[in-house]
Amino acid sequence: MEYKAKTGSPEKLSTDCLVIIVSEPRKLSSAAQTVDKASNGYLSGILRQGDMQGRVGQCLLLHNINGVTAKRVLLVGSGKQKDFNEAAFNKVINDMVSTLSESGAKDAHICLADAGIKNREFDWHICQAVILTNSNQYRFEQMKSKKSDRRVKLTKLSFEVVNRGQLKKADDAIQQGVAIGAGMDQARDLGNLPGNVCTPNYIAKQAKLMAKGQKNLTVKVLEEADMRKLKMGSILSVSTGSRQAAKLITLEYKGAAAKDKPVVLVGKGVTFDTGGISLKPGAAMDEMKFDMCGAASVIGTVSAVVQMQLPINVVGIIPATENMPDGLATKPGDIITSMSGQTIEILNTDAEGRLILCDALTYAEKFKPKCVIDIATLTGACLVALGKVPSAVLGNHAPLISDLIKSGQQIEDKLWELPLWDEYQEQLKSNFADIANIGGRDAGTITAACFLSRFTKSYHWAHLDIAGTAWKSGEQKGATGRPVPLLTQYILNQV
Ligand code: BES
Ligand code: MN
Ligand code: ZN
Predict the structure, then answer these.
(1) Is residue 174 part of a domain?
(2) Is 139 assigned a catalytic role?
(3) Interhelix angle for 122-137 vs 167-192, to 10°?
(4) Which residue in the list 208, 280, 370, 406 is annotated as catalytic?
(5) Do 465 and 391 contact (CB within 8 A), yes or no?
(6) Smallest Cα–Cα separation from 203: which of 28, 75, 321?
(7) Which run of H or E residues covers position 217?
(8) CB–CB of 105/113 below 8 Å?
(9) Could you report the per-residue pLDDT of 355-381, keeping only the tens digit for each?
(10) How much distance in Å is there from the Cα of 466 to the middle of ligand 3?
(11) Is 468 helix (H, G, I), strand (E, B) or coil?
């Protein structure tokens, strides 16, 4: 899809479809009023007949209106003005795009200017509309032998901008929306690919492909032998149960001076999580192909940052491995030594995410980070606590956490903080090693973060548990691309 910002009076624009907003009860937005006048009251006549109430997402497609240049006019309802919020906007855009892509229109001009959410800038609406449109149009068909015959003609969208002075801001919003959308698509593709395709090696190859032809992005891949030299006993204790070799992938984007400390993103890349010897039950185990969505979000975010060429330094670190049961697999009770030197008693091999992250977090020190954010589908307990609405955030630096929460509110990719109080650390005591890898049934998301906190003492750190938000189950099963919007917005706020 191509996006553009455009000024000009709506009734005179030559476009396949002019989209205008009607709110409840039967109220024309200002663009709609202009069109109504130009068409001698055609729209108000239709409203009077009762064809369009203006309910949120209600669509009415009209053709060949006298006095209007556009071939079609699509009325979209936005509901009661006082109730118009982010969720309503989401529905308006989704229903609008779905209707447009079935309409036969090749291009459309969307008038949102006076139909916005209070307290949100006009350019916020444009950026969000681009992201939502992109998500609406996303399909994952790589693995189907026959592609669907869905032929969408719609390839160009323009957004109404009321005066030329706003064009620059609108163009920036489009650029951001496009970059975030592309990053989300990339994350979703990686997430949706099955475990037999999306292996650690596959992720490493995709990362290398990204760096091709980019002068300020370098990708390095450490092999198991390199990890052994670095004494990364913890990640190796997970990969030892798998025939697929683990990879430690580093993406280094240099958009600012070398002395500028980077934002470091660390993403959990378990390409399939069987639980290992502590084998998971069978139900819905297929969804454990999504256990690399943290890694995918790092790739998606770095790719958005590269696309925008932001003047900032960003490092992505991805520990990638499978978690499999095998004759050589780690067993409950085994004790291993992490890169940090701390010994870990592995009481449950299904708590593998923290085992690969801890070595990656120690490795992160070498980049002298401004801050480190890890992103992981880490605990089922996170789903129990927060469901599928926000990701959980915990960390050791209140300003970083609050910046992340604000970024999430800004871009509608929400976070909710859980407490990382010292009292919870007790639960990780081991009789035999420095630390146990599980903390019992209670507060599972928090004790997982407590575990990570033992490896993040030397820098500002936040942990995002995306177990509830990275993918959808059921009929709409698939990766969401979250939290690429949040991470990209956070980085945008740092430049
Ligand atoms: N990848 C899972 C977490 C997960 C499970 C995410 C279900 C989304 C849905 C993780 O590796 C895991 O297995 N965690 C265990 C930890 C437990 C053994 C302490 C869990 O949540 O059950
Ligand atoms: Mn697991
Ligand atoms: Zn896992």
Answers:
(1) no
(2) no
(3) 30
(4) 280
(5) yes
(6) 321
(7) strand 217-222
(8) no
(9) 999 999 999 999 999 999 999 999 999
(10) 11
(11) coil
Atom nearest to 438 CA in ligand 1 = 19
- In the residue annotation, 354 being an active-site residue is answered as yes
Domain presence at residue 147: no
Residue 202, CA distances (Å) to 131, 141, 244 in order: 27, 18, 11
Cis bond before residue 390 (omega within 30° of 0) = no
Same domain, 463 and 402: yes
115: domain range?
2-139+152-160
Which 8-state DSSP code applies to residue 149? Answer: -
Q: Are residues 114 and 207 in the same domain?
A: no
Q: Point out the domain boundary residue: 125, 160, 195.
A: 160
For residue 327, the tally of other CB atoms under 10 A from its CB is: 5
Which residue is closest in CA terms to ligand 1's atom 7? 380
Do 445 and 365 lie in one domain? The reply is yes
Beta strand 461-465 with 335-337: parallel, antiparallel or unpaired? unpaired
Relative to the alpha carbon of 286, which ligand is closest?
A: 1
Terminal-to-terminal C-alpha distance of the chain: 27
CA distance readout (Å), 162 to 8, 72, 169, 217, 337: 8, 21, 12, 38, 62
* Percent of residues, the chain, with pLDDT higher than 90: 98
Q: Give the pLDDT mean for 69-95.
A: 97
Q: SS in 3 state form for 375-393?
A: EECCCHHHHHHHCCCCEEE
Active-site hit among 72, 247, 289, 354: 354
**CA dist list (Å): 26 to 40, 43, 58, 59, 494:** 17, 10, 12, 13, 43
Mutate which of 286, 321, 350 for ligand 1? The one with the most ligand atoms within 8 Å of its CB, which is 350
Please name the residue whose Cα sits nearest to atom 22 of ligand 1. 380
CA neighbours closer than 13 Å in the CB half-sphere of residue 377: 29
Is 33 a member of any domain? Answer: yes
Q: What is the largest CA-CA distance in the chain?
A: 84
User: Pairing mode, if any, of strands 461-465 and 391-395?
Assistant: antiparallel
The whole model's pTM is what? 0.97
pLDDT digits (tens, 9 = 90+) for 20-69: 999 999 999 999 999 999 999 999 999 999 999 999 999 999 999 999 99
Beta-strand relationship, 263-267 and 371-376: parallel
Rounded Cα–Cα distance for residues 188 and 182 (Å): 10
CA distance 56 to 260: 47
Which DSSP letter does residue 343 get?
A: E
Residue 370: closest CA among 221, 250, 491:
491
